Amino acid sequence: MSASLDVGPPLQPGDRAPNIVLDAITREGQISLDDFRGHNPVLVGLFRGLHCPFCRRHIAAMAQLDPTLREKGIESLAVVNTPIDRARLYFRYHPMPNLLAAADPERTSHRAFGLPNLEFTENQTEWPHKMGMDAVMTARVDVPGELPEPMNPMVAAEILDKADAYEITEADQQMIATGMGQLVGQFLLDRDGVVRWCFTEVPENGRYMFTAPSSQEVLSAASRIAS
């Protein structure tokens, strides 16, 4: 698996977000960031594929927060590294009616926002482009209420997949083969398309891997730009 050595750093507050055009999952047609410019701020969540149990939970949390953000005049858009047919099937059985979602199997949006795709090596770590499996095995991730204790992310993922009864399909395997190390993040854009707040897995040598911002953090940032 090759790293995205030419990608990064992630967009920061004050940077203008590029336009991206993707196939919509939760409605017909396409969604672009230009659809929001001049109209509404938007919270853009760039996630790994639906094969990632941590991302599935972060998307669900984004959906729960969506109505509160809408009250502030802020839209939400969840982008997943999953082929469109597979993504639509998942959302059909796990409906999130009000959440706009789009498929990005090529991870075009992740690169455009400066999120690297980690290369996993045996023991060489050059964060945020390479991570040794020795470092992966000593990492710990916690999902309170679902995991008995903080544990290795690979073991944690197996437990969460089993709890979700999530079966990895061939489409998922294709995404895993090229994007298992894709780093993710959330970006709050104002109505002009300028980043005003962000949260990514990139800072502090991976300290934020598999985590998401708290709802309080998102709402605090939203309040600063709400109409």
UniProtKB/TrEMBL annotation:
It comes from the Bacteria. InterPro entries: AhpC/TSA (IPR000866), Thioredoxin-like_sf (IPR036249), Thioredoxin_domain (IPR013766). Residues 11-224 form the Thioredoxin domain. GO terms for molecular function: antioxidant activity; oxidoreductase activity. It holds the Pfam family AhpC-TSA. This is AhpC/TSA family protein. It comes from Borborobacter arsenicus.
